[in-house]
Design brief:
The complex is a heterotrimer of chains A (324), B (408) and C (255). Chain A is α/β, with parallel strands linked by helices and 324 residues long. Chain A is 27% helix and 26% strand. Chain A contains eight helices and 17 strands. The mean pLDDT of chain C is 93. The chains are: A alpha/beta (324), B alpha/beta (408), C alpha/beta (255). Chains in contact: A-B, A-C, B-C.
């Protein structure tokens, strides 16, 4: 048992995810409060090179061919060994497709408390505490990070990824742990997203549509506006699930992360899963008839007019402005 | 209930069960008298786009191959506007019977467009098709003076229970018209109350979209709430609610005297006339809503109200009274705009706006809450319609009342 | 192929949420519970697999307001077996660890080949149900799944990653899969069919065991996010709003 803080590094095809840096930023404060050190836990195969800019005191590196690509069973197996051998005070994960299930499996297997959807952590008076956001970001919950060991999954929003990058490469400690492979889950291959569509993460003006767009017909109006602005249309999960936009246009947790100059959010409520993908936008303008929608917490400008009333007028005015 | 699964190219069992079910509809046996004259398909605003317009549905049924109709989603173009039933020389209840029953089979088979599915799920979950929080149903009345009485709060009997309806409660334009109607009722000294959060959708459009079970569920909820209060009659904003309460609820044991607000106000015409001081100098075309006009034969009362407004010149569009053209919102059409646009690439509301322009109207007067957003939207896209104003009759009356106050 | 779908009802975010006087839980007086949205997808995926491969589909739910409607509606859609755990309700102080243990006990008795569960719920505070349940019953778990193909004894799943990348994985059955999206949008079922189910289908009511909430944090306080940094609301009708947006775009050289 020690007071160290661990951050499990999330990486996909040679790229460390932003959420890892967010978790490192959070963990830095926790380590200061607990009096322990901060270790990034890197699982992979021939992935040592990813350790360079992790803002941690040291990197615990577990190398195994079974960890070459994410596999929940192998990740949980390796981490079970690591945590059982010398339990730290906290282990942080991203609340993501990789982190959420790894943390869940470990919590049940090792009987360790798990705190999910954590937005920020605090260490007032030496006590470690968390703030989680639930109910689509409408409710925040505060509590103590249970002792002696807590698992935590982080959502973005409070910390900047830059705060979790280190100026100097941390020491990399190769561990002798290998995942106990039961062979129940096998990684086969990556399937590339449909090709031929534009890459919304490289477009400077995005017209984003959510549930409020109501029907496919109106998506066409959004396309028209995007065209007038020289941008592209993207959307939140419900719109993509309806088949009104291809998966390549999805912004958010399970879609793309975008940082356009302008993000025009139409009929998007702003659930955290969506906000995750667009919070880096330079200017966000939100239109939603629900004035209480969380998207207005992210946007710089907003309006509660009906977007279906607004769209034709806006298209006209944009076209007029372009011509004038 | 018959099954709607299709086993073989010709599912005679389904066909026959469907045909028999039509005969259970009032006057349904008249379907045997179909002449195949195709008048129904000719007058249907979307008939030319349907794989099986009404007369072909009947011929398919006679041939024992009705399940082929079920395989075509163009049935969802039907706006339940009663144009076919109106024109049928054999007086077959085409809207009530054939079209609605066919949609019911589509719903039972789960074969419905996604947009419509959302509206039906919202109606089931929230008691309104818009998916708005039920407890905000009376928000449109917030801050009005005198306050709009909510029956659950005032705990006394009233003369008139005002059934406001979904769009008049939640849609921004409908809310404005509701505020106007409250003003008119207040000025007339009518003793009324609304149900507020206890009110549910009347369910009529859901019924005509083929979701009969949902209609019954909503009607039963409303029926239980009606029973809690004492009132003499029900007043509706929405012609669809009027139609449901007048023609459909009684069969479910929910029977109350009901009037559309245009009928109600027309009986107060003398009193109104003394109050309508202010002139509205405008040419006004009135759009007959399907469920006031063709479905229930009410054509004169709205016109009497408009004619009572000083300065107002009433003009008639090309299609008027019995021949009025649907705004596109009926029979579930309110929730199928995207689907219909995909299929048709034109909007009935635009046709109507063009007709209003053709007779030089400044104002298109309506008396159904579906119509305001539809026509206002159309006026934005129809060339030359920029200045056409869409107003509910209640708004025009309220405007004239306010004028009267100022001038006295 | 026998499939179990354990579901969770969550607060409906259409209603404004209020925090009750205790400051650590939601005010239930206006709270409306609805089926967790991705559970609808898990249910749909179960029905698609059942239709393709035969077998049975079962739904498990704790008790609570609206649960019967959810269960009968799933029966009307094609679910064979409706299990309701009585004595405890959603909204009671039950965290996901407790619910996963309760559901796990039922799953062990049913011995399904596949457990499909919504990958997350918006009020998960101690992880999502899927991986907890999987571990309690000793099955493998893969989440964020948007496609499932079953072939002799194993299934091939598509797992979603951020950015639209998808991993194809094989999972040995029995397994628990966290469904993100079904291969078809959740189907509509006519109310008359639900009413029919209410008359003809029976609920298998089973008394819930004593809950064990070990594994989650304790809530000290619950509050709404500060609204200080909210967007500047543009006043006026759509013409004025459009004009302001065009101005903003103009400042950035976008029009």
């Amino acid at each position: 048992m020690n007071q160290d803080i661990h951050v499990v590094v999330e990486h996909l095809r040679g790229q460390v995810a932003d959420i890892t840096y967010v978790a490192l930023a959070a963990a830095r404060g926790l380590a200061a409060g607990s009096g322990g050190s901060l270790a990034a836990v890197l699982l992979g195969h021939n992935d040592e090179g990813l350790a360079g800019d992790l803002g941690a005191d040291r990197v615990l590196y577990i190398d195994d061919p079974a960890l070459a690509d994410f596999n929940p069973e192998h990740y949980a197996g390796a981490l079970t060994e690591l945590i059982s051998a010398d339990p730290p005070r906290c282990v942080l994960f991203g609340d993501t497709s990789m982190g959420a299930e790894t943390a869940g499996i470990l919590s049940a297997r090792l009987d360790l408390p798990l705190v999910s959807r954590c937005r920020s952590v605090d260490t007032a008076n030496g006590a470690l505490s968390f703030v989680s956001q639930i109910c689509g970001g409408k409710i925040l919950v505060e509590g103590a990070l249970p002792e002696p060991v807590s698992l935590v999954t982080m959502v973005p929003g409070h910390y900047q990824p830059e705060e979790g990058r280190g100026a100097v490469a941390p020491e990399v400690i190769q561990t002798s742990i290998s995942p106990r492979v039961a062979g129940r889950v096998t990684f086969n291959a990556y399937l590339e997203p449909a090709v031929g569509d534009i890459d919304i993460s490289s477009v400077s003006v995005l017209v984003a549509v959510g549930r409020g767009i109501a029907n496919e017909d109106n998506v066409e109006m959004a396309e028209e506006l995007a065209e007038a602005l020289g941008g592209a249309v993207c959307g939140s999960r419900p719109v993509v699930d309806q088949g009104w936009l291809p998966t390549t246009r999805m912004v958010g947790k399970s879609g793309k992360r975008v940082k356009p100059d302008v993000y025009l959010a139409l009929g998007i409520s702003g659930a955290p899963e969506h906000v995750e993908g667009m919070s880096g936008s330079e200017l966000t303008i939100a239109v939603n008839t629900d004035v209480g929608a969380p998207i207005f917490d992210v946007a710089q400008y907003g309006s509660d007019v009906d977007l279906l009333d607004l769209l034709p007028v806006l298209i006209e005015q944009v076209q007029a402005a372009k011509e004038g | 209930m018959t099954t709607s699964t299709v086993d073989t190219p010709e599912d005679f069992e389904f066909n026959d069960a469907f045909r028999l079910s039509l005969e259970e509809v009032e006057q349904g046996r008249r379907i045997r008298a179909c002449l195949q004259c195709a008048a129904c398909s000719g007058i249907c605003p979307f008939g030319f786009l349907m794989d099986f317009p009404p007369h072909k549905m009947i011929s398919a049924m006679r041939a024992g191959m009705f399940e082929r109709v079920m395989g075509m989603d163009s049935l969802w173009l039907c706006v339940s506007c009663y144009a076919c039933a109106q024109v049928c020389p054999a007086q077959i209840p085409l809207t009530e019977g054939l079209m609605t029953r066919a949609k019911e089979e589509m719903v039972l088979a789960g074969n419905i467009p996604v947009e419509l599915q959302d509206a039906l799920e919202n109606s089931q979950r929230y008691g309104n098709a818009l998916g708005e929080p039920p407890r905000r149903r009376a928000d449109w009345a917030a801050g009005l003076e005198p306050a709009v009485p909510i029956l659950g709060k005032i705990k006394r009997s009233v003369d008139v229970l005002w059934f406001v309806g979904d769009y008049a409660s939640f849609h921004p334009r409908g809310r404005q018209a509701s505020q106007a109607l409250a003003t008119v009722l207040n000025r007339l000294g009518v003793d009324y109350g609304i149900l507020g959060p206890e009110e549910n959708s009347d369910g009529d459009s859901q019924r005509l979209a083929g979701e009969r079970g949902l209609f019954e569920m909503l009607a039963e909820k409303n029926g239980r709430v009606f029973e809690k209060y004492e009132f003499q009659e029900i007043l509706t904003t929405d012609p669809h609610a009027f139609n449901a309460l007048k023609n459909e609820y009684p069969a479910l044991g929910i029977s109350y005297p009901v009037r559309h607000y245009s009928q109600f106000l027309a009986t107060h015409l003398e009193q109104l006339q003394t109050m309508l001081g202010g002139a509205i100098s405008a040419r006004v075309a009135f759009h007959d809503p399907c469920y006031l006009g063709r479905a229930n034969g009410i054509y004169d009362e709205p016109r009497q109200l408009l004619a009572a407004v000083p300065g107002l010149e009433l003009v008639e569009m090309l299609h008027t009274r019995e021949t009025s053209i649907c705004c596109g919102g009926g029979g579930g059409g309110m929730w199928l705009d995207g689907f219909r646009w995909e299929k048709a690439r034109f909007r009935l509301s635009e046709v109507r706006v063009q007709e209003a322009l053709a007779v030089g109207a400044d104002i298109l007067a309506v008396t159904c809450p579906y119509e305001m957003p539809r026509f206002e939207d159309a006026a934005k896209t129809v060339e030359g319609a920029e200045h056409l104003v869409v107003k509910d009759i209640a708004e025009l009356l309220a405007d004239a009342l306010v004028e009267a106050e100022v001038s006295s | 192929m026998n499939i179990v779908v354990p579901v969770k009802l969550v607060p409906d975010l259409v209603e404004d949420l209020e925090i009750d006087e205790s400051g650590i839980t939601l005010d239930t007086s206006w709270l409306r519970l609805i089926l967790n949205e991705v559970d609808e997808h898990a249910l749909e995926q179960a029905l698609l697999l059942k239709e393709a491969h035969g077998g049975t589909a079962s739904v498990i739910s704790l008790d609570g307001e609206g649960v019967d409607d959810v269960l009968f509606s799933s029966a009307a859609k094609g679910v064979d077996h409706l299990i309701k755990l009585t004595g405890l309700e959603f909204g009671d102080d039950l965290n996901n660890h407790a619910v996963a243990r309760l559901y796990g006990a039922i799953v062990e008795r049913l011995e399904p080949e596949l457990v499909l569960i919504g990958v997350q719920a918006h009020n998960d505070l101690d992880g999502s149900l899927g991986p907890l349940l999987a571990e309690y019953v000793g099955m493998p778990y893969v989440g964020y799944v948007s496609g499932i193909t079953v072939t002799d004894g194993k299934c091939r799943v598509l797992k979603e990653y951020p950015g639209g990348l998808i991993a194809e994985m094989d999972v040995v059955l029995p397994a628990v899969l966290g469904v993100q999206a079904a291969e078809a949008p959740p189907r509509y079922v006519a109310i008359s069919r639900i009413r029919q189910a209410m008359k003809t289908v029976s609920l298998d009511e089973q008394a819930a065991a004593d809950p064990d909430s070990g594994g989650g944090p304790t809530i000290d306080s619950m509050f709404k996010p500060e609204t200080g940094e909210r967007a500047t609301m543009i006043a006026g009708d759509e013409e004025e709003v459009a004009a302001k947006i065009v101005d903003l775009l103009g400042e950035l050289g976008k029009v």
